[in-house]
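Re: that chain you flagged

S.,

Sorry for the slow reply, it's been a week of failed gels. I finally had a moment to sit down with the sequence you sent. For the record, here it is as I used it:
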Amino acid sequence: MRILIIEDNRDIAANLGDYLTDRGHEVDYAFDGVTGLHLAIVNEFDALVLDLALPGMDGLEVCRKLREESRKETPILMLTARDQLDDKLAGFDSGADDYLVKPFELREVEARLEVLSRRGQRVAPRELNVGDLHFNLETLTVTRAGKKIDLNPIGLKLLEKLMSASPAVVSRAELEHHVWGEELPDSDSLRVHIHSLRAAIDKPFEKPLLTTRHGIGYSLVDPDATSSQA
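Prediction finished late last night. Pasting the structure tokens below so you have them in one place:
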């Protein structure tokens, strides 16, 4: 497993990391909450070991930001010296998968991490992603750069079709059929709804995602992904 240990007590982190490394696992470290959050977002880990009391940002906040803002589903084992039920419930409520009270046995930490990893990194909700635009198809929640975007039912249908096809172009006829079926509206309806969608998902942000292919249709394209492939 590749494991990130976020623990400000360097002796505890080194002791646990040495044990896991000797057992064949790959271990990275962070000694404060801000650094730990950054590493957990930009890298892929099989599991995180997260201390509750951290400088800069505590473990509960790190956990919440990973789950709610960054949509990361990496399994999290939370470590803490607090053994009260309310503390444990707060950890689970923030998105932790398991909870272990200090002092702990190193073998138990490894065993719990292996169990969490085998669970398949939690059951992730069905979600579409294009760049920093995210659409949770179960809750019908749309966010971009961590900001919630409110769309009407037609806007949601258009967005789902465009994100599912991204970066391919979706024709006007496909979009109209997806939204209205066989009972097509007047010719200006799609254009009006596309205008509203663009105002919601692109206008407040620096980089546009929704592209018009005149005479053909529309596409959602992440400009950063396109430039990196060039």
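What I noticed first: The first strand starts at residue 2 and ends at 6.

Talk soon,
D.
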